[in-house]
Design a protein that fits this description.
Elements lengths: L13 E7 L16 E15 L3 E3 L9 E3 L4 E9 L3 H7 L8 E3 L5 E3 L12 E7 L16 E18 L5 E9 L13 E4 L3
Antiparallel strand pairs: 1-2, 1-8, 2-5, 3-4, 5-10, 6-7, 8-9, 9-10, 9-11
């Protein structure tokens, strides 16, 4: 009987969690610790991209390239978050969440989101887990098991945009760029994907 492993990857939304850098990765099969903030699910479309192409070298004796190197390497996440609170929006803009809370003199609680972003973005760790309902974090290619992406250090990059879908639900488009974390082992400094296999 032929094996049906690997299973097809489950598709759908990812749930995005961030914590101020530095923060250790959470256990694969457990709930996220309290110091991780769930920014919410994506709208179902997300791109996890390896950055950095090859540079090819030629000599006078051959038409084709004779050597290839990768001079730069990177990893980025692009997605649209939905159902965000102002504190969570601030984090997705690369700010500190405490910047958005304000109290009116009349005793009314107001949450204010500054539109001017800081010169230096706040660095975060990021974890991405499967967000399919009703069972969450079952994104392993080996079956209905947990899986996650972990980026130990990075920043929210680019020019995030507020968008609204046809049904009127708001979202925030973002790009998160991994930064080199020298505290991790070789080859893991930009993060890694891990999945339970049995």
């Amino acid at each position: 009987m032929p094996s049906n492993i690997p299973y097809g990857r489950l598709t759908g939304v990812l749930k995005v969690y961030v914590a101020p850098y530095p923060e250790a990765v959470d256990t694969l099969d457990g709930a996220m610790a309290a110091n991780w903030t769930e920014l919410g699910p994506t709208d179902g479309t997300q791109t996890l991209k390896f950055v950095g192409g090859m540079e090819y070298f030629y000599d006078n004796d051959n038409l084709g390239p004779v050597k290839a190197i990768r001079p730069i390497a990177g990893f980025s996440v692009t997605a649209t978050l939905v159902n965000l609170l102002p504190e969570e929006i601030a984090m997705a803009l690369g700010e500190a969440p405490a910047d958005v809370v304000d109290d009116d003199a009349g005793g009314v609680s107001i949450r204010r989101l500054p539109l001017l972003r800081d010169f230096a973005p706040v660095e975060y760790a990021m974890t991405l887990r499967g967000g399919a309902q009703p069972i969450t974090n079952v994104d392993s290619p080996f079956g209905v098991f947990p899986a996650q992406y972990f980026i130990p250090r990075g920043v929210f990059d680019g020019e995030p945009e507020f968008v609204r879908s046809k049904d009127g639900s708001p979202g925030l488009e973002f790009t998160f760029v991994a930064l080199h974390d020298p505290t991790l082992a070789a080859a893991l400094q930009l993060g890694y994907f891990q999945a339970q296999d049995v």
